[in-house]
Design a protein that fits this description.
Mean pLDDT: 91
Radius of gyration: 22 Å
Low-confidence stretches: 1-25
Structural class: alpha+beta
């Protein structure tokens, strides 16, 4: 095992903060969309039904499964799926890309089942893939029982982990393109389908990039939204909230006021200790509020090698929780 030398650095920067306000709802979470860090929440770790926010993970699991993106034949089971629908008919064929748009923009349960059967060999096989991916990504309080979000007593997640689902998914360029679309038109032969994104804020709020809606009687209204403003990126999730549109905008405005992007380490050369110099090629920027800035700490790990030039790691933590790591070139 490589041994490492830890060099601890400290940095302080001042910001301007605004008092926090509460939001209604059974559970909600606001996270930094760059790091996945929880910024604020209420009952954020409480397991609850998430309804069609499930489809965020359905889409990512399908995209990352390596399954062919060609045509998919619609089975009788997919065509007759209960709940919201893009009105697929038994025996018809549709491109996987189009089904993904129908899944995310119109929340089609029939699209969810068609994609699941294609990638997993069966719906149960695909749900197993979803759960294995959730475990891989560290979603410890999330369990899926179907690809659509229809109610099942064991189909549960939390506001925080659902926000992390969107955080992980938005790192995939294909998912990001689909989830960000305001509209989508599918044309093939005599088939023409046009879908408008159900997420209202994508059409009305210039700071909203992507998101997903959900509803069942058991879950209530569920909503996930990706905001971006002045280089600051947030993900907000509310579960069982009848005033979700307003609360998402309120929480986003409040968080944008209270947090700033702070350059905690500038790019350039650093004298680590006599005879050892480090070159950080990119600045390290974190979303922080005024109270957090002074609690940021830095550790540079240097591999104990005889080489003159090595690659080290610059780690930034807040209250001993690692937020980000970056490569630093070490010259001895």
């Amino acid at each position: 095992m490589r041994q490492a030398i830890a060099i601890v650095l400290f940095l302080s920067v001042l910001l301007t903060a605004v008092p926090k306000e509460a939001a209604s709802g059974s559970a909600w979470a606001v996270i930094d969309a760059e790091t996945g860090r929880l910024l604020d929440g209420s009952n954020e770790n409480l397991q609850l039904p998430i309804a069609s926010l499930t489809k965020i993970w359905t889409a990512l699991t399908f995209i990352e499964s390596g399954t062919s993106m060609g045509e998919i034949s619609i089975s009788p089971e997919a065509a007759s799926a209960e709940g919201s629908s893009i009105y697929l008919e038994q025996g018809m064929k549709m491109d996987a890309d189009a089904l993904l748009y129908g899944l995310m923009l119109r929340s089609g349960n029939d699209a969810a089942y068609a994609l699941a059967e294609h990638a997993g060999g069966s719906v149960d096989g695909f749900v197993d893939l979803m759960n294995k991916k959730a475990e891989l990504y560290g979603l410890e309080r999330t369990t899926f029982r179907n690809p659509s979000g229809l109610h099942d007593d064991q189909h549960l997640s939390t506001a925080y982990e659902t926000a992390l689902m969107l955080y992980f998914a938005m790192k995939n360029e294909k998912f990001k393109k689909i989830a960000s679309a305001e509209n989508f038109v599918y044309r093939k032969g005599d088939v023409v389908r046009s879908w408008r994104n159900k997420h209202r804020l994508i059409h009305t709020n210039e700071n909203v990039l992507a998101g997903k809606t959900g509803f069942t009687k058991a879950a209530g209204r569920t909503l996930a939204t990706y905001f971006e403003k002045d280089g600051k990126k947030l993900i907000i999730v509310t579960l069982n909230n009848g005033n979700d549109w307003n609360d998402h905008e309120h929480l986003a405005d409040q968080t944008f006021r209270n947090y700033e992007n702070v350059t905690v380490a500038k790019k350039g050369k650093y004298r680590i200790f006599p005879g050892v110099e480090g070159n950080l090629k990119r600045p390290i920027i974190l979303l922080l509020n005024e109270e957090e800035v002074e609690r940021v700490s830095h550790v540079v790990y240097i591999p104990r090698k005889n080489d003159r030039n090595v690659k080290g790691t610059w780690t930034v933590s807040l209250d001993n929780e690692v937020l980000v790591t970056a490569e630093i070139e070490i010259r001895k």
